[in-house]
Structures are given as C-alpha cells and as structure tokens.
Design brief:
The chain is an alpha+beta fold and about 220 residues long. Helix content is about 25%, strand content about 30%. The protein has helices at about 30-45, 50-70, 135-155; strands at about 20, 80-85, 90-95, 110-115, 120, 160-170, 180-190, 190-200, 205-215. A 6-stranded antiparallel sheet has the order 4-5-7-8-9-6, covered by helices on one side. A hairpin with a 5-residue loop joins strand 2 (about 80-85) and strand 3. The longest helix is centred in the N-terminal third of the chain and has 19 residues, at about 30-45. Mean pLDDT is about 95; it is low at about 1-10.
Length: about 220
C-alpha cells in the first residue's frame, strides 16, 4: 500500500466558493436528536405491519410536522465542518446522503484520521438492504465513494470523482460491524489516485479505486 507523502494542505474554506458554512460543533443537540429519531422512524416505516388506521393517523401527524419544519430551510449547498479525531477537520455538505449531519436517511459514516488515511466503523440496518440480509450494492459504492473522496480532500485538497471502480468480493451483511478504510495511492498534479475497502468479520467484501480531480480554490 502506497500512501501520499505530500503534507496535507490546509482545509479550504467553502465560503471562497460562495457557499454557507456551519461549524459541526454548533449544530444544536436538539437537531441531532431529531435526526436520530427520524432515522429510527424511516426504519420503522420501512418494516411496519400496523393496521391502516394507525398508518393514516401517523401519516397525518408526519405531514403536520413536515409543515412545521419547512418554514425555515437551509440554503442549497450549505457546508459543515466535521472532526476527524486527530484535531483536523474535513468539510462536506450538511445534507450529504452518506455522511450528512442533518440527513436522517444517511448512515452517518463517521470517518476518522489514521496514519494511512481514513477509517470508519458502521453497522447498517434494513434501510440499506438490497438482497435479503445484505447491503445494497449502490450503498456499498456510495460509502466507498465518500471514503475515497474524503481521504483525497484531507490528504491533498477537495476534488470531484472523475472515475470510480468497485469490485464486489463477497456479500456485505447487514447488522454486522463494517470497517471502511481509504487511502491515497499517488498524486499527479490535479489528479489524485485513491483506494478503499470494506471489511466484515475481517474479510474484504468490497474494494474501490478512484480518480479524483482537485478543484482549484479561488484566491
């Protein structure tokens, strides 16, 4: 495994691109609690077999709550800082479908800095199911895309995925701790070559290789 030997660059400020920025530490605990409760609600709705009267009553309640929340909405493209466990931070969209702090549908992939790159551990439920008892291949690709994109950003500078190749080695199970790792192979100018793996029970279930193109930060 070859890792990037270049020193990590300072995290760019998304406000340079005209995007609003929220500090992760400033997200209210009440909002984080709401996100968690709605995440549980998504799982409950997906698996419920309650009677139709209960379904109708619950739908009406949720509709009313949705109207209350929609009176004040964030600007599209709002960014947020996330701690990486070693004192450094990364910046991402606050509603990111994989790691967004305020997105109840996200599995909340919490990546932490390691000597080799980034690492996370996550356990997925039936919200992310594809084949019976297994993680959907699209979510496997999404988590690897998030991991390799993040490691490219924190080890070099923010960029966009130009190419992503996923190899599915074994079925990835639900309700099992998954280890996700990502690292930088090499850097060639604006091109950053990155790789990542998903492991379950110590075995590689999927791995990905990607080419990221670094975005030029306005001066």
């Amino acid at each position: 495994m070859t890792v990037n030997t270049q020193p990590a660059t300072e995290t760019s400020d998304p406000r340079s691109f005209g995007l609003p920025l929220v500090q992760g530490t400033e997200i209210p605990a009440e909002l984080r609690s709401l996100v968690s409760r709605v995440h549980d609600l998504i799982d409950a709705v997906a698996n419920t077999e309650v009677d139709t009267d209960t379904l109708a009553e619950t739908a009406a309640t949720v509709e009313g709550l949705t109207e209350r929340l929609n009176v004040a909405r964030r600007e599209i493209g709002t960014m947020v800082t996330r701690e990486l466990g070693d004192g450094s931070t990364e910046v991402g969209t606050i509603t990111n479908i994989v790691a967004g702090d305020t997105n109840p549908a996200a599995p909340q992939l919490a990546l932490m800095r390691t000597e080799e790159g980034l690492r996370a551990e996550i356990t997925l439920n039936t919200i992310y199911q594809g084949p019976p008892g297994l993680v959907h291949g699209g979510w496997i690709a999404a988590m690897l895309d998030q991991a390799v994109g993040s490691v490219s950003a924190v080890e070099t500078s923010p960029g966009l995925t130009a190419h992503l190749e996923i190899d599915y080695r074994k079925p990835t199970p639900l309700f099992t701790p998954l280890e996700i790792t990502a690292w930088v192979d090499r850097v060639e100018g604006r091109k950053v070559y990155v790789a990542g793996q998903i492991r379950a029970n110590g075995q590689v279930t999927a791995e990905g290789n990607a080419l990221m193109i670094r975005v030029e930060v306005p001066e």
